[in-house]
Amino acid sequence: MNHEIMMIMFGVGVGLLVGATGVGGGSIMTPLLVIVAGVPPVSAIGTDLFYAAVTKTVGGASHFKKSTVDLRLSLQLAVGSVPAAIGAVFLLSYLNDHIGFSIDTPLIIVVAIAIAICGIAMLWQTLFPPPLRPERAPKNQWIAAIISGLLVGFVLGLTSAGSGAVLALLLIAVFQLAPHRVVGTDVFHAALLLWAASIGNIILGNVDFGLAGLLLLGSVPGVLVGAKIAVKLPALALRCALAGVLLAAAGSLAVKAGLPLPPAGLVLWFATVALGVVVMYRRVRQTHPELPT
């Protein structure tokens, strides 16, 4: 397939997922660029961050207009996440300059671990949602926010993954935000964080603007279509499926990094993940029939 057409199709596919489920952009795009397109990991991460920053800015502005953003919490998170992401970007560049291509394998392993964590967090959040309760900020919220931001920002700057599913889980479990404000706060903060990491990558020359343009050419209509069809699709099943895709992608990245797993073993991993997601989905539908599909 023509390279340009393939990149546009990547954008369409990831855009559909993001539009239909609200998450998954950074966690899916980097593995696609590394595994399928053969883009070097450092360039894949930098390009993915810039691509995601543009799309999250549009979403963040929309949520801000709808008053679904906890602005104070977003800024408190950014106090920790922005410097952590910038520090991670320059740490990655330093390692790449001093080690060279030998950093590719350990970096792919780190990305695989981050994506696996995102998949597990998404699956947990989807299948075991906390009970609805009034919003209640934790004691010393700003300390918890800065620490959470440091963690999410460093992982995102190093791997381009983690700004969506992991932070959403923290917003629910730690900060007890109402569901309608979790997505808005997550997306708005992600826009701030992604631009900080993207600017660092632009300065270091890690962003392929031509590639990012092709991805955006496909993802913008993909997001719009995904958002329109989301109301007609089983959202719970979609999010479970996306979590499974993330876990499968983590396995593929591990093999690319040198994990001695034969093709049959990789197929078995894919089948195990798929079966596990189906079993867990059916279980949660039986034990929590009140949850919307």
Which SSEs are present, and which pair or pack?
Blueprint: H1 3-21, H2 25-36, H3 41-65, H4 71-99, H5 104-127, H6 141-159, H7 165-173, H8 179-204, H9 209-229, H10 235-256, H11 263-287
Helix pairs in contact: 1-2, 1-9, 2-3, 2-5, 2-10, 3-8, 3-9, 4-6, 4-8, 5-7, 5-10, 7-8, 10-11
Distance between the termini: 36 Å
Number of strands: 0
Portion in beta strands: under 5%
Number of domains: 1
Unreliable stretches (pLDDT < 50, length at least 5) are: none
Oligomer: single chain
Reported for the largest beta sheet, the result is: none
Helix content: over 70%
Run of helices and strands: HHHHHHHHHHH
Class inferred from helices and paired strands: mainly alpha
The value of Rg in angstroms is 18 Å
Number of distinct helices: 11
Whole-number mean pLDDT = 78
Morphology call: globular
Description:
With about 290 residues, the protein is mainly α. The protein has one domain. About 80% of the residues lie in helices and about 0% in strands. The chain contains 11 helices and no strands. About 50% of the residues are buried.
Q: Tags for this entry?
A:
11 helices, 293 residues, single chain
Short description:
The chain is mainly α and 293 residues long. It contains eleven helices and no strands.
